[in-house]
Amino acid sequence: MIRSARLVALMVAASLFFVTPALAAPLSFPALPADGFPRRGPPNVTAATWILYDESSNSVLASHLPDQERAMASITKIMTALLAIERRDLDDIVTISNKAANTGEREIDLVAGEELPLRALVKSAMIHSANDAATAIAEYVGGSVDGFVIMMNTRAQELGMTETSFANPHGLDAPDHYSSARDMLDLALEAMTHEEFRDIVRSQYLVFPDAPDGSQRRGTTTNLMLGDYDGASGIKTGFTSRALLTFVSTASRDGRRLYAVVLGSEGRRAHFADARALFDYGFGQLGIYGTLATEGPYVSLEPRVAPGPIYAETNLETFVHLAGQGLMTTPPSPSTPVSDVAPLPVTVVERHPEESPQGVLSAIGYWWSLAIGQ
Q1: What is the percent of the chain with per-residue pLDDT over 70, rounded to a whole number?
Q2: Residues near 218 by Cβ (< 8 Å), separated by ≥ 6?
Q3: In this structure, what CATH number is given to the domain that contains residue 134?
Q4: Structural domains in the chain (count)
Q5: Residue 192: which domain range?
Q6: Cα separation of 250 and 233, whole Å?
Q7: At a CB cut-off of 8 Å and minimum separation 6, what does 72 contact?
Q8: pLDDT above 50: residue 60
Q9: CA-CA distance, 318 to 56, in Å (whole number)?
Q10: Which residue would you say has higher pLDDT here, 2 or 59?
Q11: For 24-41, how does the pLDDT look when each residue is reduced to its tens digit (9 = 90+)?
């Protein structure tokens, strides 16, 4: 039965390369029927909604309710930092207002009237998740917090974030402040195109300018996967009582960069455990997908009859694999053929039947010798 199911998936995927563009429009592969054979699907995570994305092939590997609207908490600051990088020079000097200095919850202890580089404020907002720094950024870039919120929502529309509404620059709970896993993924992908942003979000420590009274101000990242998970390189965590734990994360291995967005994770450090499980699944269980998508031979970690590398037309083999897991949601792009593999040598064996005895007496003697074992 499994063999038949795989053959059907292969035929469906192969047919995509020969249909017209009109017929190749949205196509989804249903999950294989429950036939009693175990299959390794996405891990069980605590997040209410999540998405796992492979940047190397521009494909969503797996997701759960990715368009559901939820409170987002401090991952809001990804948009705050993006607008600061896009609209202003990070070397600009910002004067801190009373409103910014008095923004609560998590702070870097800004002092009203002090002057600081915009770059230091962006680093504080992204690394230390400082709400006072986020408010100071909003006031400088947008003229006011309200003006900045308008800029945030306008930029969200430009990025196609249809399930998102911003009400503030820091992420504290508000009635009209929400997003979705897919929208936050799109925002992260845009932000990570900026070198300044990438450098900031992979930092674990922040040395902030001293306060006016000379006291030192230091910050540490809220992203505990940095330095703890192989390949982790950003980007932002969040928590409020309404949003619960949220996390937009990325990790790179062997030429692949994956993104995992989790919203509404429950439990101590559950957002890190959820992201780790999704990354392990993407890099491990879907290793064949990433490897073939980058046109390389794949050696399975699972026992196979033929343990050698798999060579195939890249996207055909890739998407057949995803279809078989029930993860395929979009049609594959045209395949890229790889070079033919030399066929195995063929050994020709000639078999000659033993000559039968001639004559009746000879035949009787032959069978008699066989009977008595001589």
Answers
A1: 66
A2: 205, 206, 207, 208
A3: 3.40.710.10
A4: 1
A5: 73-284
A6: 6
A7: 171, 177, 178, 179, 184, 238, 243, 246, 263
A8: yes
A9: 13
A10: 59
A11: 333 333 343 444 444 467
